[in-house]
Amino acid sequence: MAEEKKRSTGYHGGTVDTVISVEAVNAQAQAIASKVEVSDLMALAKNDPFLVLEDLHAGYGRMEILHGLNLAVARKQSLCLIGPNGAGKSTILHAIFGFNDIFSGSIKIGDGDAKKDIGALSPSSKLKKAGIAYILQDKSVFPGMTVEENLWMGGFLKDDPKQAKIAAEKVFDKYSRLADRRKHLAKVLSGGERRLLEISRALVMDPEILLVDEPSIGLEPRFIDMVFDILHDLQHNEGKTIVMVEQNAKKGLEFADIGYVLVSGELAIAGTGDELLENPDVGRLFLGG
């Protein structure tokens, strides 16, 4: 019997006969990693970053996941974080929003020299005072509440409940798909409608920075395009800054201005989204090419 020919392609993409293991991707990604200087990150952020992570060490309990991570993104820019499972991508979002432990380093937000270190703020303070919203992975809506009630919950930190209702009406004005279902229970929505509701609920507080965790996860292709169209509108028409983790690396890099490849809690490669799409090593490991 002829020896069976096996073909391997990258992690999270492509049609495969043999999929590269996470451990193999980690090893190969470490082999192609290049030293990324802070000046390189600043240049990608137009030398005018709005959100900056400086030498950040963070994790959970006593476990350090991020080892001296630097990050820079300007106002109205988008950054996509890619890498194998366990690379620390979601940990970056958690650190920015206050869901884990910061051991050292800083998280700063602001324009020019007016940046403030917000690392010690609670998640609620980061949402209300620093203008940072976290859009969780799928299934974060309240299924037993109506679409309207879910949006009101997005404004729970507003000083007056009426403000949340006013903000919700602005969302309905923008997204007729939700307006048509305002009295429907969230549990009857399609996957794409639930994701739209999750994004819209975060908008009720009118944040400046959106942390978006796996926007395409669990969605049909037609809804994936819809969600990325919505994010594109929020960035380019409403001026939101977006930091995203996306398992569909090709889609994420096509969307984003900047791409970072994370490996074992460290930054391995950084460039524009287009540069990473054209990088043959990134393609081989993460794009199925």
Structural class: alpha/beta
What overall geometry do the principal axes of the alpha carbons give? globular
- Give the distance, in angstroms, between the N- and C-terminal Cα atoms: 30 Å
What would you say the CATH architecture is?
Answer: 3-Layer(aba) Sandwich
Cα Rg:
20 Å
Q: What string gives the helices and strands in order?
A: EEHHEEEHEEHEHHHHEHEHEEHH
Q: In what range is the share of β-strand residues?
A: 15-25%
Helical element count? Answer: 12
The first-level CATH class name? Alpha Beta
Work out the number of β strands: 12
Number of domains: 1
Model regions low in confidence, pLDDT < 50 over at least 5 residues: 1-18
CATH fold title: Rossmann fold
- Residues in helix, %: 25-40%
Strand order, main sheet: write it out.
8-9-10-5-11-12
Within CATH, the superfamily carries the name P-loop containing nucleotide triphosphate hydrolases
Mean pLDDT: 90
For the sheet with most strands, the description reads:
6 strands, mixed
Describe this structure in words.
- This protein is an alpha/beta fold.
- The chain has a single domain (8-287), classed as Rossmann fold.
- Helices cover 38% and strands 25% of the residues.
- A 6-stranded mixed sheet has the order 8-9-10-5-11-12, sandwiched between helices.
- Strand 6 (101-109) and strand 7 form a beta hairpin.
- The longest helix has 16 residues, at 221-236.
